[in-house]
Amino acid sequence: MTCGSLRVNDVEQTVTLRGWVNRRRDLGGLIFIDLRDRYGITQVVFNPQVAPGAHQIASDVRIEFVLRVAGVVRARPEGTINQKLETGGIEIEASEIEVLSAAKTPPFYVNEESDVDEALRLEYRYLDLRRPRMQHNLILRHRVVKHIRDTLDEQGFIEVETPLLIKSTPEGARDFLVPSSAHPTTFYALPQSPQQLKQLLMVAGFDRYFQIARCFRDEPQRADRQPEFTQLDLEMSFVKQHDVMDLMEGLYITLAEVFSGKKIRQVPIPRLTYREAMDRFGIDRPDLRFGLELLDVSDALIQTTFQAFANVLANGGQVKGLVIPQCASYARRQLDELTSIAT
């Protein structure tokens, strides 16, 4: 039995719940506690007329105490139903309570979304992970990874866990090194990717391999670079480029549609060569949602006396421009603002 499982059809059942105190309200006579676990929240009522001993203990309970509560499921009175909770149609009339773990006042609120300094969140990570958004993120990650595993299993892939302590191999960054106690002055390297190991599997005849792989790269951190990260790593034998692209496209489309609730605008996803992307957008990873294709205006400027353009054309280059509707009247300041956004 969890704090998110009880419904109106459970009324009059005797149940036992365990969880954290999300909120506590003392109305003078009755005490209401919202008991929380990762499955949901259930309201528990402590009535001094029904269970005076339990009511006395509940008087000393505070936020984030861990409790065991037993009682009878009751339908909430008319006008008190909480439509925001799946358990909002019922409450527990408590007959027993046990404090499994008392809690000090937390350094930040767990039961609401608030702007908390990241250093403080990391110092009290066990509290941070109780917050609904963080729990949702971890559960979402679990479901995404499970979906990946199920999909690739249906496609004939075998998941193989490759070693983490290996010999240093040439990659794009520095290795993290781990000293060996069995062999003094020697070191293992943590893998930047399982590249060579999965090639061994291909040679061994495992033609479809995948792994949710941990990778380590000792390099300066940026928004898209972390020293430790997880990636979907896979390899296929006896296939062409389009086979790999078809597989990954199908996987990413289902991931987006199943877990984000959004639809991919264009299926199949458009495929551009590197040259086409650079010619049309000036970048190898264009965002096709916004258009903004580069147009070659070299022919229109053949006779130009503007040296910046004339020199480019004289050296065999091209002059390209963007068509931006309703921006022809922009002043230089506004154009500079657009440039700063783009760069």
Domains (count): 3
Q: Could you say which overall geometry the principal axes of the C-alpha atoms support?
A: extended
* Physical arrangement of strands within the biggest beta sheet: 1-2-3-5-4
Series of H and E elements: EEEHEEHHHEEEHEEHHEHEH
CA radius of gyration is 30 Å
Distance between the termini: 54 Å
Fraction of helical residues: 25-40%
CATH class of the largest domain: Mainly Beta
Characterization of this structure:
- This protein is of the alpha+beta class.
- The protein folds into 3 domains: 8-101, OB fold (Dihydrolipoamide Acetyltransferase, E2P) (Beta Barrel), CATH 2.40.50.140; 151-238, Bira Bifunctional Protein, Domain 2 (BirA Bifunctional Protein, domain 2, 2-Layer Sandwich); 278-342, Gyrase A, domain 2 (2-Layer Sandwich), CATH 3.30.1360.
- It is built from 9 helices and 12 strands.
- It has helices at 52-59, 118-123, 125-128, 132-154, 195-203, 241-259, 274-281, 307-314, 332-342, and strands spanning 14-26, 31-37, 40-46, 66-75, 90-101, 158-159, 177-179, 187-189, 208-216, 228-236, 294-296, 320-322.
- The strands form 4 sheets. It has a 5-stranded mixed beta barrel.
- The mean pLDDT is 93.
